[in-house]
Structures are given as C-alpha cells and as structure tokens.
Amino acid sequence: MAEKFRASLPANDVLDILIVGAGISGINAAYRIQSHFPKYTYMILEGRGQMGGTWDLFRYPGVRSDSDLFTFGFEWSPWEKLSPIADGESIRQYLHKSASMHGIDKKIQYGHLLTNASWSSKDCLWTLKALYGRQQLQYKARFLVFGTGYYNYNEPLEAKIPRIEQFQGQTVHPQFWPEDLDYANQQIVVIGSGATAITLVPSLAKKAAKVTMLQRSPTYILSIPNKALKRPWYCHLLSQKLYFMVRRLLWIISGRLFIWYCHRWPDGARRMIEKSTTQQLPVQIPYDPHFNPSYRPWQQRVCFCPDGDFFKSLQSGKATVETSIIQEVVPDGIVPASGKKLAADIIVTATGLQLQMFGGVKIEVDGKPLNPSEKYMWNGVMIQDMPNAAFVFGYTDASWTLGADITAKFICKYLKYLERQSYRAAVPYLPESISLLPASTINLQSTYVTLGAANLPKSAAESPWTGRKGFIPDYAWLKLGRLDRGLTFIK
C-alpha cells in the first residue's frame, strides 16, 4: 500500500512527512508514523536547540505538569514512576528517554525554524522554507504535521499593568525566567492566579522573604496527593504492561467523571472544592473573596497543587494572597485598588500566554496566503482549505497528550485511506452555500484565551467543522467516523 502513495513522489529528496516541533506532540506523532509506515521518510524540524517544546522553554522555579503523567505521558512509553505530578526536569528526561528508545531523536533537526509553507496542487507537495542560523534551507514534503502548540514561544502576553515602567526593581515573565535571578530574601509579587502562579508561589516562598500572589479574580485550587502512590493489590495479578494500561485507563475515566460532575452539578462541585480549600487555609486568609470564583468549575481550568504545597506556603506565613485590581505600580511596589501597598523587589507577571497557531509560519496554498484564523477546523485536526496538513491540538480540560494522540492516530488512518483509494491529497472544503455559527475553539473563559481567540481557527457546533469535543467522542469518531465527509480528494 505504501508504494502506491510513494509512487507519486517527483524526486527522491521529497519527504513523505515533515513534522514541525519536537515537543510532546511532535515526538508522539513521529512514533505513530514510523510504527505504521516504516518505509516512509520523515523529519522533525525544531526551531530551538533542544527537544521538549514547552518543557524545555519553561524554566521558572517549581515548573511542573498541571495534569497527571499517567495520561500526560505517552501511551507507548508509560510513565513508570508512582507520583502522578512531575517537575519539568523529570519530564525532559522522560521525553529524551522515550525518543531515544525508538530512534526518534535521530530524526530531529535542531535550530531549524520553519518560516514559510507553500502548497502546490499541481505537484501535490508542500515546499518549506526554514532558517538555520542565517542560512535559508528548503524542503519538500507530501504531508505536514504541526506540533507547534498554541502559543507564541518568542513573545509573552503583554499584560496592561498601569505604570509598570515606574518600577525600579526587576520585572520577570515566567516564560523567560533568568537563569541567574537571585530571589533569596527578596519581596516578590506574583501577578496572576492561574497554574503558573499556583506553581510559582510555594517554590519562591522557600527562599524569598515574602511572596504575594496578586489576583484580579480567584481560581479554583484542588490539592491532590503526589507522594509515591502504592500499587493496588490487583497490579500483582497483571503483567507490567497490562498494569500500566489499566492505570492509564482508570486515570482517564476518573478525570472525565470529575469534569462531567463539575458540569452536571456545578453547585455541588463548588461546595466540594470550598470545603477542601477552607480546611487548608490559615485563619488570617478568608475563603471569600480570595478563593471564591464568580464562575463555575471548569469554565476556567481548575488548578491542582500536589500535596497541598500552595496552601502550606500560606500556612507558613511566607506567602499570602491579595484579590484586587492594580491601581498603579510605584518604584518600590504595587498599589492595588484596595489601597494596601504591596512592597516588591521583584514583580512576576504570570498573566498567561499569547495564543498563536502554527508557530507563526506563513502559509500559502497555490500562491495565495491562507490565514488559519479565518478558517474552520475540520474535526479538530485539519484546517479548511489547507491540504495534507494536520494541526496537533490537545485538551484544555484533560491531558494535552490524549488529544495529541487522537490526532496522530488520525493521521495514520488518513494516510492509509489515501493509499487504499489511490488519492494523492485531500483538503477540507466548506461550500459557500453552507453557513456555520462560530463557536469557541478553546472551551475556557480564561483572560488569555479570550484575548487571543481571534488568533485561533474557528469552530462550529455542526460536524465536521468542530474543534476538540472531548476524549470519548473524539475517540469514537476516530474509530467509527467517516473520513470522507467535508473533504475533497485529489487523484
């Protein structure tokens, strides 16, 4: 079958698959492709000097996963440790080990920044331009996989903080944490209340004189045990491989059940989280307003803190929380609207990410620019009018890798379908006569998502022009859904 598809190659130097990005998404896609198509040629272009994507970029104190590694890890390379939450260094080591075990690391071209991707319907090929230092290189490929994530690696989200230029201390964004920053015995204000802030506060509090988390509005925070979990009795009845499969499945099910409960009975979920939070707060910090969000659980992402480390830092007195908008920044701190000045030597702007698709690559189809933000997603994996290309998009209410693996498995199924039908390419096509009602691509109401929504492809409620629907419906579509609906094929 592979030979039928490869017979259309005009030259020996044309790649079958080109993967952009050597993070979680790119490494997983590479494994699936080489497992299903051992004769296919593929390459991974990575703009940075190391593999790992987010986990190589983010180096702020305490950086860790915000979902369990049993499902965040690869299905084909189980997370063998017993603790579900892992720090950044452990995740980097895991990625290197997983990639090297299967020779994926030898397929990566580091320091190769893809800048342009141009599709030719005449040749059924992508022409790619990449920068390697000052040298411009060119590649050709039949199929593209964008494992570039959904945010800008080079520019953080610029938060509008009144008079921040007046501050005479050091301002730091977690995305670009200085390696030589000495924050011992310093007064630190962390602006934000998301997963990054919840991670930073307890880590900084170990060395800093005082850490204040300044939030405009609170978020839901849940403590989860992260000490080495004991293996249950039934694991002794199973092989190691089967045990890892069962453990992964149980974590997938329990995670989906929790989210379903939050959506189905939001008041009950709110009370449950309130009870857990109140029990861990010191007497001087009240639940309301600091931990009582105005929205329902999972309208924004629920934050998890392993072994309650965030609350322990509050109990120690080394950390505290303030809920208020910022009135102004002064040379030695921040004055919130409450009027209570917060002294600061360092301000950390943990205010979110700047959303960006395709890593900022300029895309053309038959000589015409294609703007992904003006197009609809096809089943959450392809983009309208963009032939032979998949964009890896994970989940925001579950482990990213679960969605990334759905995409990788779809790519393999899609390529096999092209082989069987003797097609060279396919493009998601939406007739002008069909009118769709746009829906949110990322089903969260976080500030950075709202601000960056215009940079994302559109989604609709009508199939197949939807984004991610959830692991179970996406998996069902992968196994049972039609691949020809909404696609135009090229012989």
UniProtKB/TrEMBL annotation:
Keyword Ligase (UniProt): no
Gene3D superfamilies attached to this UniProt entry: FAD/NAD(P)-binding domain (3.50.50.60)
Classification via SUPFAM superfamilies: FAD/NAD(P)-binding domain
Pfam families: FMO-like, NAD_binding_8
Recorded GO MF terms: flavin adenine dinucleotide binding; N,N-dimethylaniline monooxygenase activity; NADP binding
Keyword annotations of the record: FAD, Flavoprotein, Monooxygenase, Oxidoreductase
PANTHER family in the record: MONOOXYGENASE, PUTATIVE (AFU_ORTHOLOGUE AFUA_8G02570)-RELATED (PTHR43872:SF1)
Protein name, entry field: FAD/NAD(P)-binding domain-containing protein
Organism: Exophiala bonariae
